[in-house]
Amino acid sequence: MSGTLITNARLFVGVDETVIADGAVLIEGDRIVWSGPTADAPDDPDVDGDVERVDVAGRFVMPGMTESHVHLSYSNAHPSQLDKQPVPIAMLDAVDNAAELLRMGFTSAISFGSAQGIDVHLRDAIDSGRVAGPRLLASDRDIGSTGSNADNKEPASEGRKRIADGPWAVRAAVREVAKSGADVVKIFLDGEELSAHAAPGVISYTDEEVEAACTEAHARGLRVACHARSAEAVKQAVRFGVDFIGHANFLDDEAVEMLAAARDRIIVGPGIAWEIQLLNRGHEIGLSRAAMVARGYQREVDETVSAVKRLREVRVPLTIGGDYGLSITPHGTNATDLQYFVELFEMGHAEALLCATRDGGKGFDPAGMVGTLEAETFADLVVVDGDPTGDVTVLQDPDRIVGVMKAGAWHHRHL
Ligand SMILES: [Zn+2]
Protein backbone atom coordinates (compact mmCIF):
# COMPACT_ATOMS: atom_id res chain seq x y z
CA MET A 1 0.00 0.00 0.00
CA SER A 2 1.32 3.46 -0.82
CA GLY A 3 1.70 6.25 1.69
CA THR A 4 2.47 9.94 2.06
CA LEU A 5 4.54 11.68 4.72
CA ILE A 6 3.71 15.38 4.93
CA THR A 7 6.48 17.31 6.71
CA ASN A 8 7.31 20.87 7.69
CA ALA A 9 3.67 21.75 8.31
CA ARG A 10 2.02 24.24 10.63
CA LEU A 11 -0.36 21.56 11.82
CA PHE A 12 -3.94 22.04 13.00
CA VAL A 13 -5.07 18.58 14.10
CA GLY A 14 -8.54 19.92 14.83
CA VAL A 15 -9.24 18.44 18.26
CA ASP A 16 -8.74 21.88 19.85
CA GLU A 17 -7.32 25.27 18.85
CA THR A 18 -3.66 24.18 19.08
CA VAL A 19 -1.36 24.76 16.09
CA ILE A 20 1.81 22.66 16.09
CA ALA A 21 4.61 24.85 14.69
CA ASP A 22 6.53 22.03 13.02
CA GLY A 23 4.24 19.09 12.37
CA ALA A 24 4.00 16.00 10.24
CA VAL A 25 1.25 13.70 9.02
CA LEU A 26 1.81 10.12 7.91
CA ILE A 27 -0.82 8.62 5.62
CA GLU A 28 -1.19 5.01 4.55
CA GLY A 29 -3.86 4.12 2.02
CA ASP A 30 -6.94 6.18 2.86
CA ARG A 31 -6.10 6.64 6.57
CA ILE A 32 -3.90 8.81 8.74
CA VAL A 33 -1.60 6.54 10.72
CA TRP A 34 0.22 9.26 12.66
CA SER A 35 0.15 13.04 13.16
CA GLY A 36 1.96 15.35 15.55
CA PRO A 37 5.19 17.31 16.13
CA THR A 38 7.92 16.34 13.67
CA ALA A 39 10.29 15.77 16.60
CA ASP A 40 8.07 12.87 17.72
CA ALA A 41 7.52 11.39 14.26
CA PRO A 42 8.38 7.73 13.68
CA ASP A 43 11.98 7.60 12.26
CA ASP A 44 11.26 5.08 9.65
CA PRO A 45 7.62 5.24 8.61
CA ASP A 46 6.22 1.79 9.02
CA VAL A 47 4.36 1.70 5.75
CA ASP A 48 4.50 -1.14 3.27
CA GLY A 49 5.46 -0.05 -0.21
CA ASP A 50 6.26 3.51 -1.24
CA VAL A 51 6.13 6.53 1.01
CA GLU A 52 6.20 9.83 -0.81
CA ARG A 53 7.65 12.65 1.27
CA VAL A 54 5.91 15.97 0.72
CA ASP A 55 7.62 19.00 2.30
CA VAL A 56 4.95 21.70 2.54
CA ALA A 57 7.51 24.39 3.48
CA GLY A 58 5.77 25.70 6.58
CA ARG A 59 2.30 25.87 5.07
CA PHE A 60 -0.81 25.27 7.16
CA VAL A 61 -2.24 21.74 7.17
CA MET A 62 -5.76 21.24 8.52
CA PRO A 63 -8.57 18.70 8.33
CA GLY A 64 -10.90 18.86 5.33
CA MET A 65 -13.99 20.92 6.07
CA THR A 66 -17.63 19.80 6.22
CA GLU A 67 -20.37 21.82 4.50
CA SER A 68 -23.23 20.96 6.84
CA HIS A 69 -26.20 22.15 4.75
CA VAL A 70 -25.48 21.63 1.08
CA HIS A 71 -27.63 21.76 -2.05
CA LEU A 72 -25.34 20.49 -4.82
CA SER A 73 -28.27 20.18 -7.23
CA TYR A 74 -29.02 23.90 -7.15
CA SER A 75 -27.72 25.76 -10.18
CA ASN A 76 -26.73 29.20 -8.83
CA ALA A 77 -30.19 30.41 -9.82
CA HIS A 78 -32.92 32.65 -8.41
CA PRO A 79 -34.55 31.08 -5.31
CA SER A 80 -37.73 30.41 -7.30
CA GLN A 81 -35.81 28.71 -10.13
CA LEU A 82 -33.76 26.17 -8.20
CA ASP A 83 -35.50 23.14 -9.67
CA LYS A 84 -36.37 24.58 -13.07
CA GLN A 85 -33.34 23.32 -14.98
CA PRO A 86 -33.85 20.33 -17.25
CA VAL A 87 -32.68 17.29 -15.25
CA PRO A 88 -29.72 16.45 -17.51
CA ILE A 89 -28.39 20.01 -17.19
CA ALA A 90 -28.96 20.03 -13.45
CA MET A 91 -27.02 16.76 -13.19
CA LEU A 92 -24.08 18.23 -15.11
CA ASP A 93 -24.18 21.34 -12.93
CA ALA A 94 -24.22 19.17 -9.81
CA VAL A 95 -21.09 17.35 -11.00
CA ASP A 96 -19.33 20.71 -11.41
CA ASN A 97 -20.61 21.95 -8.07
CA ALA A 98 -19.32 18.85 -6.27
CA ALA A 99 -15.86 19.21 -7.81
CA GLU A 100 -15.74 22.88 -6.92
CA LEU A 101 -16.74 22.26 -3.31
CA LEU A 102 -13.98 19.67 -2.93
CA ARG A 103 -11.48 22.00 -4.63
CA MET A 104 -12.27 24.63 -1.97
CA GLY A 105 -11.32 22.23 0.81
CA PHE A 106 -14.68 20.71 1.71
CA THR A 107 -14.11 16.97 1.85
CA SER A 108 -17.53 16.15 3.38
CA ALA A 109 -21.02 17.52 2.90
CA ILE A 110 -24.43 16.90 4.45
CA SER A 111 -27.27 17.46 2.00
CA PHE A 112 -30.29 19.48 3.07
CA GLY A 113 -32.40 18.75 0.03
CA SER A 114 -31.86 17.68 -3.54
CA ALA A 115 -33.78 18.80 -6.60
CA GLN A 116 -34.85 15.97 -8.89
CA GLY A 117 -33.32 13.36 -6.60
CA ILE A 118 -29.89 14.10 -8.08
CA ASP A 119 -27.89 13.63 -4.87
CA VAL A 120 -28.09 9.85 -4.67
CA HIS A 121 -26.66 9.40 -8.16
CA LEU A 122 -24.06 12.08 -7.53
CA ARG A 123 -22.99 10.41 -4.26
CA ASP A 124 -22.66 7.04 -5.99
CA ALA A 125 -20.60 8.57 -8.81
CA ILE A 126 -18.33 10.27 -6.26
CA ASP A 127 -17.94 7.11 -4.18
CA SER A 128 -17.05 5.03 -7.24
CA GLY A 129 -14.41 7.58 -8.28
CA ARG A 130 -16.19 8.44 -11.50
CA VAL A 131 -16.52 12.15 -10.61
CA ALA A 132 -14.78 14.35 -8.06
CA GLY A 133 -16.60 15.57 -4.99
CA PRO A 134 -16.80 15.50 -1.21
CA ARG A 135 -18.06 12.56 0.80
CA LEU A 136 -21.78 13.17 0.57
CA LEU A 137 -24.72 12.31 2.80
CA ALA A 138 -27.35 12.40 0.09
CA SER A 139 -30.90 13.58 0.55
CA ASP A 140 -33.86 13.51 -1.80
CA ARG A 141 -36.68 15.98 -2.39
CA ASP A 142 -37.81 18.00 0.63
CA ILE A 143 -40.83 16.76 2.56
CA GLY A 144 -43.37 19.40 3.58
CA SER A 145 -47.06 19.78 4.34
CA THR A 146 -49.71 21.45 2.22
CA GLY A 147 -49.33 25.17 2.70
CA SER A 148 -45.80 24.88 4.07
CA ASN A 149 -42.80 26.74 2.73
CA ALA A 150 -42.03 23.62 0.69
CA ASP A 151 -45.43 23.89 -1.01
CA ASN A 152 -45.00 26.35 -3.83
CA LYS A 153 -48.33 25.49 -5.37
CA GLU A 154 -46.98 23.26 -8.10
CA PRO A 155 -47.88 19.60 -8.44
CA ALA A 156 -46.78 17.51 -5.45
CA SER A 157 -43.73 15.23 -5.74
CA GLU A 158 -41.99 17.23 -8.41
CA GLY A 159 -38.72 19.12 -8.55
CA ARG A 160 -37.70 19.90 -5.04
CA LYS A 161 -40.44 18.56 -2.81
CA ARG A 162 -42.90 15.90 -1.77
CA ILE A 163 -46.08 17.21 -0.16
CA ALA A 164 -47.37 14.90 2.56
CA ASP A 165 -50.07 15.48 5.19
CA GLY A 166 -50.86 13.22 8.12
CA PRO A 167 -48.58 10.69 9.83
CA TRP A 168 -49.21 7.90 7.34
CA ALA A 169 -48.59 10.07 4.32
CA VAL A 170 -45.44 11.39 5.97
CA ARG A 171 -44.30 7.82 6.63
CA ALA A 172 -44.96 6.96 2.99
CA ALA A 173 -42.95 9.97 1.85
CA VAL A 174 -40.06 8.95 4.10
CA ARG A 175 -40.27 5.41 2.70
CA GLU A 176 -40.05 6.85 -0.82
CA VAL A 177 -36.96 8.80 0.18
CA ALA A 178 -35.46 5.65 1.71
CA LYS A 179 -36.26 3.68 -1.43
CA SER A 180 -34.46 6.26 -3.52
CA GLY A 181 -31.25 5.38 -1.67
CA ALA A 182 -30.86 8.64 0.24
CA ASP A 183 -29.07 8.95 3.57
CA VAL A 184 -30.97 11.98 4.86
CA VAL A 185 -34.65 12.96 5.06
CA LYS A 186 -35.19 16.72 4.84
CA ILE A 187 -38.41 18.09 6.33
CA PHE A 188 -39.82 21.59 6.75
CA LEU A 189 -41.02 22.25 10.29
CA ASP A 190 -41.82 25.92 9.83
CA GLY A 191 -41.77 28.70 7.30
CA GLU A 192 -39.82 31.50 5.71
CA GLU A 193 -40.21 35.27 5.52
CA LEU A 194 -40.10 35.20 1.73
CA SER A 195 -43.02 32.79 1.56
CA ALA A 196 -46.40 34.38 0.90
CA HIS A 197 -48.25 31.77 2.96
CA ALA A 198 -45.83 30.26 5.50
CA ALA A 199 -43.93 32.61 7.83
CA PRO A 200 -41.20 31.37 10.21
CA GLY A 201 -43.59 31.25 13.18
CA VAL A 202 -46.06 29.02 11.30
CA ILE A 203 -45.57 25.42 12.38
CA SER A 204 -46.17 23.26 9.33
CA TYR A 205 -46.31 19.80 10.91
CA THR A 206 -48.07 18.48 14.01
CA ASP A 207 -46.12 16.55 16.63
CA GLU A 208 -47.62 13.30 15.28
CA GLU A 209 -46.27 14.04 11.80
CA VAL A 210 -42.78 14.95 13.03
CA GLU A 211 -42.67 11.85 15.20
CA ALA A 212 -43.76 9.75 12.22
CA ALA A 213 -41.03 11.23 10.03
CA CYS A 214 -38.29 10.70 12.61
CA THR A 215 -39.24 7.18 13.71
CA GLU A 216 -39.72 6.01 10.13
CA ALA A 217 -36.41 7.52 9.00
CA HIS A 218 -34.44 6.18 11.95
CA ALA A 219 -35.95 2.71 11.60
CA ARG A 220 -34.57 2.67 8.07
CA GLY A 221 -31.13 3.95 9.05
CA LEU A 222 -31.65 7.43 7.64
CA ARG A 223 -30.95 10.65 9.49
CA VAL A 224 -33.29 13.62 9.57
CA ALA A 225 -32.49 17.22 8.64
CA CYS A 226 -35.00 20.00 9.16
CA HIS A 227 -35.71 23.60 8.35
CA ALA A 228 -36.64 25.17 11.69
CA ARG A 229 -36.41 28.90 12.30
CA SER A 230 -38.69 29.39 15.31
CA ALA A 231 -38.28 28.21 18.92
CA GLU A 232 -41.40 26.03 18.60
CA ALA A 233 -40.08 24.26 15.51
CA VAL A 234 -36.67 23.76 17.12
CA LYS A 235 -38.33 22.20 20.17
CA GLN A 236 -40.31 19.84 17.95
CA ALA A 237 -37.08 18.87 16.23
CA VAL A 238 -35.28 18.11 19.49
CA ARG A 239 -38.26 16.33 21.05
CA PHE A 240 -38.66 13.84 18.19
CA GLY A 241 -35.00 13.24 17.43
CA VAL A 242 -34.14 15.31 14.35
CA ASP A 243 -30.39 14.95 13.76
CA PHE A 244 -29.54 18.17 11.89
CA ILE A 245 -31.29 21.46 12.62
CA GLY A 246 -30.97 24.12 9.96
CA HIS A 247 -31.26 27.78 11.07
CA ALA A 248 -32.60 27.89 14.70
CA ASN A 249 -32.80 31.68 14.46
CA PHE A 250 -35.39 32.53 17.10
CA LEU A 251 -34.81 30.72 20.41
CA ASP A 252 -36.42 30.99 23.83
CA ASP A 253 -35.04 29.69 27.14
CA GLU A 254 -36.71 26.31 26.80
CA ALA A 255 -35.34 25.77 23.29
CA VAL A 256 -31.82 26.62 24.45
CA GLU A 257 -32.12 24.23 27.41
CA MET A 258 -33.41 21.43 25.19
CA LEU A 259 -30.61 21.93 22.67
CA ALA A 260 -28.06 21.97 25.49
CA ALA A 261 -29.39 18.66 26.83
CA ALA A 262 -29.23 17.17 23.32
CA ARG A 263 -25.83 18.59 22.33
CA ASP A 264 -24.14 15.19 22.03
CA ARG A 265 -26.58 13.97 19.38
CA ILE A 266 -27.66 17.10 17.55
CA ILE A 267 -26.04 19.49 15.10
CA VAL A 268 -27.17 23.09 14.59
CA GLY A 269 -26.15 25.04 11.50
CA PRO A 270 -27.34 28.66 11.38
CA GLY A 271 -26.99 28.82 7.58
CA ILE A 272 -26.78 32.57 7.78
CA ALA A 273 -25.50 33.26 4.24
CA TRP A 274 -29.05 33.26 2.91
CA GLU A 275 -30.26 36.15 5.08
CA ILE A 276 -27.08 38.15 4.73
CA GLN A 277 -26.92 37.92 0.97
CA LEU A 278 -30.66 38.52 0.57
CA LEU A 279 -30.06 41.80 2.38
CA ASN A 280 -26.81 42.64 0.56
CA ARG A 281 -27.43 41.27 -2.93
CA GLY A 282 -31.20 40.76 -3.10
CA HIS A 283 -31.46 43.77 -5.41
CA GLU A 284 -29.66 41.66 -8.06
CA ILE A 285 -32.67 39.34 -8.15
CA GLY A 286 -35.39 41.92 -7.78
CA LEU A 287 -35.62 41.88 -3.98
CA SER A 288 -34.61 45.26 -2.59
CA ARG A 289 -32.88 45.61 0.74
CA ALA A 290 -35.78 47.70 2.03
CA ALA A 291 -38.23 44.98 1.05
CA MET A 292 -36.11 42.29 2.71
CA VAL A 293 -35.82 44.34 5.91
CA ALA A 294 -39.59 44.80 5.84
CA ARG A 295 -40.01 41.04 5.45
CA GLY A 296 -37.99 40.56 8.62
CA TYR A 297 -34.58 39.36 7.42
CA GLN A 298 -32.56 41.97 9.31
CA ARG A 299 -34.43 41.10 12.48
CA GLU A 300 -33.73 37.45 11.77
CA VAL A 301 -29.99 38.14 11.48
CA ASP A 302 -30.07 40.06 14.78
CA GLU A 303 -31.98 37.25 16.50
CA THR A 304 -29.55 34.69 15.11
CA VAL A 305 -26.62 36.57 16.61
CA SER A 306 -28.23 36.30 20.03
CA ALA A 307 -29.27 32.66 19.49
CA VAL A 308 -25.73 31.67 18.51
CA LYS A 309 -24.31 33.48 21.54
CA ARG A 310 -26.60 31.51 23.83
CA LEU A 311 -25.83 28.20 22.12
CA ARG A 312 -22.09 28.82 22.48
CA GLU A 313 -22.57 29.46 26.19
CA VAL A 314 -24.13 26.02 26.60
CA ARG A 315 -21.62 24.38 24.22
CA VAL A 316 -24.00 23.25 21.49
CA PRO A 317 -21.89 22.42 18.41
CA LEU A 318 -22.45 24.85 15.55
CA THR A 319 -21.58 23.99 12.00
CA ILE A 320 -20.88 26.07 8.96
CA GLY A 321 -22.50 26.20 5.55
CA GLY A 322 -26.00 26.42 4.29
CA ASP A 323 -27.90 27.51 1.24
CA TYR A 324 -24.98 28.09 -1.08
CA GLY A 325 -25.91 27.38 -4.69
CA LEU A 326 -28.13 30.39 -5.36
CA SER A 327 -27.13 33.29 -7.61
CA ILE A 328 -26.57 35.43 -4.52
CA THR A 329 -24.64 32.64 -2.73
CA PRO A 330 -22.79 30.81 -5.51
CA HIS A 331 -21.24 27.37 -5.06
CA GLY A 332 -17.61 27.51 -4.05
CA THR A 333 -18.01 30.53 -1.77
CA ASN A 334 -19.07 28.33 1.17
CA ALA A 335 -16.06 29.27 3.31
CA THR A 336 -17.54 32.78 3.60
CA ASP A 337 -19.49 31.23 6.46
CA LEU A 338 -16.33 31.19 8.61
CA GLN A 339 -16.05 34.94 8.12
CA TYR A 340 -19.67 35.35 9.27
CA PHE A 341 -18.90 33.22 12.34
CA VAL A 342 -15.99 35.53 13.20
CA GLU A 343 -17.43 38.92 12.29
CA LEU A 344 -21.10 38.46 13.11
CA PHE A 345 -20.98 35.87 15.90
CA GLU A 346 -17.69 37.20 17.34
CA MET A 347 -15.97 33.83 17.40
CA GLY A 348 -12.20 33.52 17.38
CA HIS A 349 -10.78 32.44 14.03
CA ALA A 350 -9.61 29.09 15.43
CA GLU A 351 -13.02 28.49 17.02
CA ALA A 352 -14.72 29.06 13.66
CA LEU A 353 -12.22 26.67 12.10
CA LEU A 354 -13.21 23.99 14.62
CA CYS A 355 -16.86 24.47 13.63
CA ALA A 356 -15.87 23.85 10.00
CA THR A 357 -13.71 20.82 10.75
CA ARG A 358 -14.19 18.94 14.05
CA ASP A 359 -17.85 19.82 14.67
CA GLY A 360 -19.05 19.44 11.10
CA GLY A 361 -17.12 16.19 10.88
CA LYS A 362 -18.82 14.86 14.00
CA GLY A 363 -22.16 15.66 12.39
CA PHE A 364 -21.19 13.93 9.18
CA ASP A 365 -19.86 10.85 10.94
CA PRO A 366 -20.68 10.44 14.64
CA ALA A 367 -18.10 7.62 14.71
CA GLY A 368 -15.41 10.27 14.27
CA MET A 369 -13.76 9.22 10.99
CA VAL A 370 -13.77 12.74 9.52
CA GLY A 371 -13.13 16.26 10.77
CA THR A 372 -9.78 15.88 12.54
CA LEU A 373 -6.28 14.70 11.62
CA GLU A 374 -6.11 12.14 14.42
CA ALA A 375 -4.59 8.72 13.75
CA GLU A 376 -6.89 6.09 12.23
CA THR A 377 -9.27 8.64 10.71
CA PHE A 378 -9.73 9.18 6.97
CA ALA A 379 -6.90 11.14 5.36
CA ASP A 380 -8.98 14.16 4.32
CA LEU A 381 -6.88 17.31 4.61
CA VAL A 382 -6.24 20.77 3.22
CA VAL A 383 -2.93 22.58 2.73
CA VAL A 384 -3.29 26.35 2.98
CA ASP A 385 -0.88 29.08 1.97
CA GLY A 386 -1.77 31.29 4.94
CA ASP A 387 -2.98 30.90 8.50
CA PRO A 388 -6.75 30.50 8.91
CA THR A 389 -6.38 30.59 12.71
CA GLY A 390 -5.32 34.22 12.26
CA ASP A 391 -7.59 35.03 9.32
CA VAL A 392 -10.30 32.63 8.15
CA THR A 393 -10.87 34.62 4.96
CA VAL A 394 -7.81 32.97 3.36
CA LEU A 395 -10.06 29.92 2.92
CA GLN A 396 -12.16 31.84 0.38
CA ASP A 397 -9.23 32.20 -2.03
CA PRO A 398 -8.68 29.20 -4.32
CA ASP A 399 -5.07 30.29 -4.89
CA ARG A 400 -4.40 29.90 -1.16
CA ILE A 401 -5.90 26.37 -1.04
CA VAL A 402 -2.79 24.72 -2.44
CA GLY A 403 -3.56 21.12 -1.54
CA VAL A 404 -6.72 19.08 -1.06
CA MET A 405 -6.48 15.40 -0.16
CA LYS A 406 -9.46 13.10 0.24
CA ALA A 407 -9.10 9.49 1.38
CA GLY A 408 -5.31 9.69 1.00
CA ALA A 409 -5.39 10.84 -2.64
CA TRP A 410 -4.64 14.37 -3.82
CA HIS A 411 -7.60 16.00 -5.54
CA HIS A 412 -5.66 19.24 -5.93
CA ARG A 413 -1.95 19.78 -5.40
CA HIS A 414 -0.04 22.93 -6.20
CA LEU A 415 2.90 22.64 -3.83
ZN1 LIG B 1 -31.36 24.89 2.61
Question: How would you summarize what this structure contains?
Answer:
Helix content is 31%, strand content 21%. With 415 residues, the protein is an alpha/beta fold.
Structure characterization notes:
By secondary structure, this protein is α/β, with parallel strands linked by helices. It has two domains: 3-64 and 369-413, Roll (Urease, subunit C, domain 1); 65-334, Metal-dependent hydrolases (TIM Barrel, Alpha-Beta Barrel), CATH 3.20.20. The chain has helices spanning 87-103, 118-127, 167-180, 207-219, 231-240, 253-261, 273-281, 289-295, 297-313, 336-343, 349-364; strands spanning 3-11, 20-28, 31-37, 51-55, 60-63, 65-70, 106-111, 135-137, 142-144, 161-163, 184-188, 223-228, 244-247, 267-269, 381-384, 401-406, 409-413. Strands 1, 2, 3, 4, 5, 15, 16 and 17 form an eight-stranded mixed beta sheet that branches. Helix 2 (118-127) links the parallel strand 7 and strand 8 (135-137). Helix 3 (167-180) packs parallel to helix 4 (207-219) and helix 5 packs parallel to helix 6 (253-261). The longest helix is centred in the first third of the chain and has 17 residues, at 87-103. The chain is globular, with a radius of gyration of 21 Å. The site of zinc ion has 7 residues, from loops. InterPro entries: Amidohydro-rel, Metal-dep_hydrolase_composite, Metal_Hydrolase, Metallo-dep_Hydrolase, OTAase-like. Pfam families: Amidohydro_1. This is Putative hydrolase. Keywords: Hydrolase. It comes from Ilumatobacter coccineus (strain NBRC 103263 / KCTC 29153 / YM16-304).
